[in-house]
What we know:
Layout: H1 2-17, E1 20-22, H2 29-38, E2 46-50, E3 53-60, E4 63-70, E5 75-82, H3 89-98, E6 103-112, E7 116-125, E8 128-135, E9 140-148, E10 155-161
Antiparallel strand pairs: 1-2, 2-3, 3-4, 4-5, 5-6, 6-7, 7-8, 8-9, 9-10
Amino acid sequence: MKKLFVTIIAVLFASALFSQKVEESQVPSNVMNTFKARFTDVKEVKWEKEDTVYTAEFLMNESPTEAEFNEKGIWLSTEWEIPTDCTPQAIKDYVNTNYAKYKLREIAVMEFPVDGKLYVIEIAKKKDCQALYFSLKNEFKKAVKETCDKEKKCCEKKKATTQ
Length: 163
């Protein structure tokens, strides 16, 4: 009986750690208002919630896009996926020189309230995953060590480390 109880608690705890799909009606009005103000032409949106962060997934100009907001409705970031074959040559050269044995997994343009727009390149070598941040002028900014996640193809933020 004690083992069953511990197992149930472990399963409930583990399920709480991952993002959950939520209906639009469950998204707080302040989050919805901020979303609608920033993305006026978006029609179809899928929502997820992880901890106190709401993520909207949608198409913007035919590009898969994600926007994150905290529960108070404050915009945290926007991410636009781009095909890996569209990676700027200067960034490819940097990765090949400094991360020769790593595989390019994903590239996106991300916009943040303070840092503005940046390229974010996810790379991996076995269980070593990193996100590399570059300016839109292809200047290296920082590397962030991440946890490899096979389902998401690569990475989840772990801790920041600047090279």
